[in-house]
Amino acid sequence: MCVIALCGTVGLALALTGCGASDNAQPQAPSQAPSTPSLWASPADPDAAVKTAVLTSYTSMWVEQMKAYRKASPEGTRLKDFATLDALSVIERDLATMKKNGARVVGGIGHGPEVVALDMEAKIATATVEDCIDLSHWRAQRTSGEAIPLPSAQPKRFVATASMERWDNNRWMVTEYKPDQNQSC
Length: 185
Description:
This protein is of the alpha+beta class. The chain has two helices and nine strands.
């Protein structure tokens, strides 16, 4: 048995054995993601529009990431629109490992993202997003349909931090993602 870091950007570990991968899984948006900008930033907040743009990009990255994890391939996703090469390389390594081991994601990940820092005065504007990752609905399986359980030590809810930068055309990009499974939420 081989223990791999599946969805390393989330810091999950699953025990896998080799099987063939399936490319016909349907994409699903992350569960429990805020559906309206009003949930992300207070209208009285002078940075509300910027925070909404940051969180829209962050959530869009997760939607595309889950599309990729459902078929163990980045093909047909827009990950490059939301994640820099550094962040994308981690996701692509996860996908290669998933494909090699015949694993795919069929469940969802809950989120509770919040912009906790914003620096619009920097040469390249930056933001920090803290997210409460909720694995209550996370499901992975082999192509045979056999469920792959989370390790017993895997926390169901933990904090993850994303560093983001504003690039051309006011496009916010995830540059770094760090899960902290020791910090519950």
